Amino acid sequence: MSGLDDLRRLQSAAQSFVREPRSAIGMDETGTVEVRVDETGRLDAVEIHRDWRRRFSPEAVAPAVLAAAGDALAKQAAAWAEDVRRPPPPARPAAGPTGPAVRPRFDGAPDPRLHDLLRTVTEAFAEIGAYAEHVQASAQRTTTGRSHSGRVTITLTGSHLTTVEIDERWLRSEASGRQVADEIEAACRQAYRAIAADDEATSTRTPHLDEVRRLARDPENFIRRVTGD
């Protein structure tokens, strides 16, 4: 097998580790609450219409936030599934004048860079078990977050928003849609910081898998890792 064949095989293996959805926006059925989730499904932003009081009661705010978050996740999952089914675009021809084919510099004698990358990918496969255990445990983990004022408390199951509790006395006062949204976002950020700390500790168990995922996200860096260009 040539060095070029090795590189293509490595790229394919690395890309199998990276199947990331895109961010998505969802709304409740009234269109009063809008939630954006990022690529990992985490709540990224909340918008609550300034006339929310005319649209529903204070008791309906928390359920509307959950409904909007669920809508965003459903749209994200649908878009991700469509991306997976869609065939990759054809490779673009190289720019500039054509000339004789250039053989990869690592054809012939094994190149140390290719050997190192092969070892990294092999070790990454060996780490998949530990990573899968972490993913399974993370999906069932519950994390609580509170805003600084204590007016909003949220619970995440995995990284997804599953409960929202809002101080109803505050809601019934002069709380604006923007203020409520800010409190929800703050509570989520606190919970996500706790999750990030746990994930960082786990990543020390899968350093090669993390490296392959980083390389797969940046194909140009992948090539430079092998060729040195």
UniProtKB/TrEMBL annotation:
It comes from Actinoplanes lobatus. This is DNA-binding protein YbaB. The keyword Acetylation does not apply. One of its GO terms (molecular function) is DNA binding. InterPro entries: YbaB-like_sf, YbaB/EbfC. It comes from the Bacteria. Residues 93-103 have a biased composition (Low complexity). Residues 83-108 are annotated as: Disordered.
